[in-house]
Amino acid sequence: MSNSALVSYTKISPNRTSPRNHVIDTITPHCYVGEVTAEDAAAWFAQPSAELSCNYFIDKDGRIALIVPEGDRSWCSSNRENDNRAVTIECASGKTHPYAINDKVYKSLVRLCADICKRNGIKELKWLGNKSLIGQVDVQNITAHRWFANKACPGDYIYNRLGVIASEVNARLGVDASESQNGFQAALLQNLSEEDRIKRIAPLYVESMKKTGLLASVRIAQFCLEAAYGSTDLAVYANNLHGMKTELSGNTWEGSVWDGVSKYGKYSPEVINGNPVMQYSHFRQYACCEDSIADQAAYFLNAMNGSEKRYPGLKGEKDYEKAIRIIKAGGYATDPDYVSKLCDIVRRWKLYEYDEIPAAEEKSVILAQCEKFQKQLEADLAVNKRWTYHNPAKFLEEQWSNAVRKERRACNCALLARWALKEAGLIPQSTGIFYGKKGGTISWGRGTKDAVSKSCHIIKIGNRTVKELIASGTLRPGDIVTYVNIQHTNIYAGDNSWYDAGHAYCTGFGEGAVYNSWHGKTIYANQLVGYIIRPKDKEPDCDLQDNEYVVQAGSFTKRANAVDLVSKLHKKGFDAILKEIDGQYKVQCGAFSIVKNAEKLVSKLKKAGFDAFIK
Description:
By secondary structure, this protein is α+β, with helices and mostly antiparallel strands.
């Protein structure tokens, strides 16, 4: 393992274990209390009695010191497993809460993290702020010292900015951060105009409206007013787009996605007894904007005022002004001009256009079965009947009806996919098992492939991620998906969520793990898809083959030119990614199984002034 070329001072600490026993796949930033020099900190770590060390130290002037070579484990995070897989970085900070680091330290931290990632093959830095994901580096590869010990480290200043740090590091790595697995980060909006910020954030509210019945126009207007178009420190550093405090209306509510722990303290303007005041409060900190939007929606739908709903009639209200008045009447805002301010924003930006949802598509027969499974699972858990994981060799011929009648609640990812196809009437009940194998292939039982092929398209993908397929519209609700890098099969439910009988939704591991839910938010965004299995559509023009129609907007020999085009496309509201193929930097805007969909995108791009073609 190499060490960073950014190092300007070296003093190796004896407090280390050589060599580390795990590849480097994680980064753990720390705060070193005190704005000291590299020499002072290194002298402290050099004392055997300190029994502490780190891989790198960033001093008050931004100088980077090597304390423990990357090939060795530092003694830093109060956890051997973490320190064996992580590069630990101590940052000179203030001596009191929130242990702030200065601009020089911050910039060096970003540069150093990017350098560590490049040298160790870490393609993307990922942060969800979720302690339960420790070690699951395909989902989250930043950890915090406070997760392993009763400490404030890395201090709230660094901790609250880890999502922003990840975004800045990923920009240096060339990651398309607009669809990062970290979820949408408000920090990505900072260099855009107000109009472009609305265009980037609005689709998240439209998707929420489809699920909740809460008008997108009203909530986008709230984002503009309450988060200053995403520019407030609360938005940038906590992804809190609506000023949601740790406690609201003196109660909790069903459906909250806040983790109950992460918070951000700040002064904010309030109106009390008709007088404007600045009041210090704790606000909720979210891993991404999607969580902020979901939590506010849950509050509007489920917050109570005594025994009554706090916002009765808000769900399903089609008139934006009436909806805003319901929100004001429920006590959401103290500003007496809140209604008029929001209405003005809706009209100024014509946000009511986002309230127009196309006619709902016919529900997938696969999803209809998954919903039945989910209801059965929830009913069972309510009466303490456990659903457990079992190897597919067991219960191989177990049918859904038999499982319910015999009260044998056992499943896994492959059985869920087979059950869905059987109960939808797409394959015979006698059909054997199939599952996605690691490496991108599918393992078929005897005669199973023929049975599935008669009613479904089996579409080979192989080299594209889930987030790319979602962004291009290729992945559809009801699709059964297999993967390349993991042995797994699940069913896409739309809106970045899945019906999944895998361990992501289990308590425990291996045989006997207990399911909590078959339905949850995606953690698969960066996974490569092997195959999509999709029921054949009735319409002849929707017939799919193993083809991909890629819409390309440019090809360049210089990366900077391609990056510039990607930026211009994003500003116009188009999805775009950069791929290096045969020494050329190609800008791709989507890939489709149906050529007509690709042609539609080409037409939209050309109308917007971009050259585009199908390859």
